[in-house]
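Let us begin with a simple case.
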Amino acid sequence: MDRDWRSLRLGIIATDAIAIVAAYAAAAAVRFGFPELLRNSPMLTACVVLGLDGFLVTLALAWQQGTYRRGALMGGHRVYPPLVTAVTYGAVTMTVLSHFVGSPLPASRGWLVGCWSGSILALFISRLVWRRVALQWRKGGALIRRILIAGANQQGIAVAQQLHDPLRHGTVVVGFLDDYERPGTEVLPGLAVVGHPSSAAIKARELKADEVVIILGALAWESQRQLAELVTRPDSPVEGRISATFYDLLTTSAELNHVAYVPMLSLNRNRLSGFNAATKRFLDQTVSGAMLLALAPLFGYWRVKAWTLRSRMFEFQSVLGTCGRPFRLAGLHAGLTGSPVLARLPALWNVLCQDLSLVGPRPIRMEELPAHERWRANLFAVRSGLTGLWRLRESEDAVEERVALDLYYVRNCTLTLDLQILLQTGRELVRRSMGRRSLLARWKAEGAKAVVLEVASQIPDAASWEEVFEGVPAEATGEGQR
C-alpha cells in the first residue's frame, strides 16, 4: 500500500511540475511569442527567473498545505482551494520579484495573469487525471487501506459497516480490538475480534493494517490511552484516527482547533445561511418555475390523456419536509407514462412552493419515520431534495448508509456542491434518453419501507464532484411506486 502510494505521489508531483511549466510557457507564447522571446535575451532571462520563482513557491505551498497527502487525492473538491492558494501566492511572488528584475516584465500583467490562470487549469486537470488513475488502481486491489476498529460496540459496528468498502472508500476493515469481547467473537459477518487493544501493534503487523480507528467510549480509559500512545509514536506501525461517539448525531461538520493549548472539536453552524440560503431558494424557484413553463405543453398532453383514460393525472404521497412538516409529494399517475424520469416531473411544483429543494437529503415517508428517529432533528434541518447524494450508491444500502450520505450533505452543503449534483443528474438523464444504462436510483415501496434498488456511484470520498450522486423521488410509475 505504501509503495503504491509513494509511486502515485511521485507521479502527481512530476505531473504538477510539468503542468506548471507548460502553463508558464503557454502564457509566454501567447503574450510575447516564442520568436520574440528568443530574440530578446533580457526578456527571456526574466521569464526564466520569474517562472522558476513561481514554480518553486507553488510546489512548496502545495506540499505544505497537504495536497500531496493520501486523503487529498481522493478527498474530493477540498483539494482544489489549497491548489488555488498555492498558485496565487506563486503569482504574487512573481509579481513582487518582477519589480526587481531589470526587464519589461513589470508591465507584463497579461503574462502573469496567464501564468496564474493557466496553472490553476493545468493543476486541476492533472488532479482529475490522477484521480481516475487512482480509482483504476483501487479496482485492481491497490491503494486499499486496511483498518482495525478499536471498539466493538454499536458505534464501532456502524463505523466498520461504513468503512468496509474497498471500491467505494478505498478502505477495508480487517478486525476489531475490544476490551470486553473475547478474541474470535464474530461481530459482523466475516469480521471478528482479533485481540485486546494492548496487542494492537502485534495485530497490526500480523494483519498488515495501516490504521487503527479508536471508538471513544467503547474502550476502557486505559486502553484508549495505550492506543493513543501507540499511534503517536514515531516508530508506530499504524496511523491512528479517533471517531467521536456522537459523529452521526452532528448536524454540521466539526473542526479541530486549540483553546489554551487544549485540542477541541468546534461544531460548525449550518453552512447554508444568510446569503447562501437566499441564493439557494432563488435558484430553486427560478429553475423549477422555468422548467414548469417549458413543460406546460407536456402537462397539457397528460391532462388530455388522463381525461381520455378517465384516470387521475397526479398521485401524491405524504413525506416529511423541513422541521418534520408533512407535505404531499406530487407524481404522475402510473398509467400516463412508463418513464420514471417523466413521472417525477410534477415534483417541480413542490420545489416551486418551497416544500422541496432541487438538491437535498432524501425525502422521508411517514412510514419510515421510526427508523430515522435518532437522526430526525438533523435530517429535517434542511429541505429534502429532488436529487442528492443519497441516490449514488453501488448497492442496496441499509438505513444507516443512506442516512450517512444525507448527514454528509447537511454538514457540507454548498452551492458548488449543489451545482455538481445537478450536473451529474443531467448527465445521467442524457444517458437514459440515449437508451444507455442509467445510474439513476429508484425508490420502490417494500412493505412499509422505501429502499433504494438501483444505484451507482462515481465514488464519493465523500465529496469531490465526481463523487456527487443523483436521483429523484417520485410517486407511482409503471415500474412501481418511487
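The second case is a distinct protein. As before, the sequence precedes its C-alpha cells.
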Amino acid sequence: MLHPAPTDRIAPTLARGELAEVFAATATKPGHIVITFPNTSYRVHLIPTGEITTPIGKRIIGTIRATARRVDLVETGGKYIEPVYGRPRRVQGRVIGGDDHSRTLIVDAGMPIHCTMTDARQVPSQFERGAMVSFDVLDGAMFTPQ
C-alpha cells in the first residue's frame, strides 16, 4: 500500500508522484523536472510539456510520455525503470492499454508510461493487455501535468 494512502481515484493511465526538483534549461540541456514516486527510490528526470505550477514537495499528477525503440515480450522479471536516478533509459512492465492510430502503448512499470513505438513492424494491438514487455527509451521522456 502506498504511504500515505491516496484518498482520491485517478485514471490508471496517469502517473501520481511528488515533484522533487525543477531545473531551468541551459545552453546544452532542456529544462527538466525530477519526480519521485511513493514507496520507491525512483527519482525520474522528465522534460515538462506544460507549465509546472505544483510546489516542490507536493503531489503532481500527469502523463509520462516516452519514445520506445523495439518493444519485446519478456517472460521473466518485474516492473522497473532503469536507472533509478535520471532519465528513463530502459522500461519493463505490463501492458495496460494502447492505440494503433497514435502508435502508443501504455505500460505499467510501477507508474504508467505512454510509449510511442518507433519500429514500423510493430503496432500496439500486437501486445495483449497484461503482457510483460521491455524496451529501450530514446532521450527526451516528457511529463504533461494534468
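The mean pLDDT is 93. Residues 15-145 form one domain.
Keep these points in mind for the review questions at the end of the chapter.
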